[in-house]
Amino acid sequence: MWVFGYGSLLWKPGFTPAEQVVARLSGYARSFCMTSIHHRGTEAEPGLVLALDAVRGAACTGLALRVSEGEEDSVLAYLRERELVSSAYVERHVPLQLTDGRDVSALAYVIDPGHVQYCGGMPLEEQARIIARAHGGMGANTEYLFNTVQHLDSLGLGDDDLTWLAGRVEALGR
């Protein structure tokens, strides 16, 4: 069993992967297109979290995380509890191209564009203002952004929009 990490799963998978390999998912963009009313915001003051948004011609690079044999059921139960808390994500099996040449099918959490928490197309400046102030059950929205940017950079997978957002959010916090 493989899981695709493109946001917080990069730095907080919640399980110890048996293997992790940089991977590419075609047809989806990583973006702050989901409001967070539980983990990184509240219903009164929603935050933003990353999601995979279906976009023709797009691609998202992240990590393919292989689950250890025999741990599939417990990891799946954990991920469902964590990721499906509000039903804004849809669980999908997606085709990944690993940098070592393998092609695998992986579990990924993709945004439901029909869900009330979908907010695709929001300008980056507005995203920055929301992220700078939001806080939820798992902590500050800024922590989520900064950790994701740091881990993408450490993997050599820098994301221009996320890097800009991190700089802007930092400036707003001053």
Word description of this protein:
This is glutathione-specific gamma-glutamylcyclotransferase. InterPro entries: ChaC, GGCT-like, GGCT-like_sf. This protein is an alpha+beta fold. The chain has helices at residues 72-83, 124-133, 141-154, 160-172; strands at 2-5, 19-36, 47-66, 89-98, 103-111, 135-136, 139-140. The strands form 2 sheets. It has a 5-stranded antiparallel beta sheet. Strands 6-7 form a two-stranded antiparallel ribbon. The protein is globular.
Please give a handful of descriptors for the protein shown.
174 residues, alpha+beta, Hypothetical upf0131 protein ytfp, five-stranded antiparallel beta sheet, two-stranded antiparallel ribbon, 28% helix, 37% strand, ChaC, lyase, GGCT-like
- The class by helix and strand makeup works out as alpha+beta
Q: For the record, what CATH class applies?
A: Alpha Beta
* CATH fold-level name: Hypothetical upf0131 protein ytfp
Distance between the termini: 43 Å
Strand content: 35-45%
What are the low-pLDDT stretches, counting only 5+ consecutive residues below 50? Answer: none
The Cα radius of gyration reads: 15 Å
Strand order of the largest sheet: 1-3-2-4-5
State the helical fraction: 25-40%
Biggest pleated-sheet summary: 5 strands, antiparallel
Number of domains: 1
Looking at this structure, what is the CATH superfamily?
Answer: Gamma-glutamyl cyclotransferase-like
* Beta strands, count: 7
Helix count, per DSSP? 4
The coarse silhouette is globular
At CATH level 2, the architecture is: Roll
Taken in chain order, the helices and strands follow as: EEEHEEHEEHH
Mean pLDDT across every amino acid position: 96
Organism: Pseudooceanicola algae
Keywords: Lyase, Transferase
Pfam families: ChaC
GO biological process, one term: glutathione catabolic process
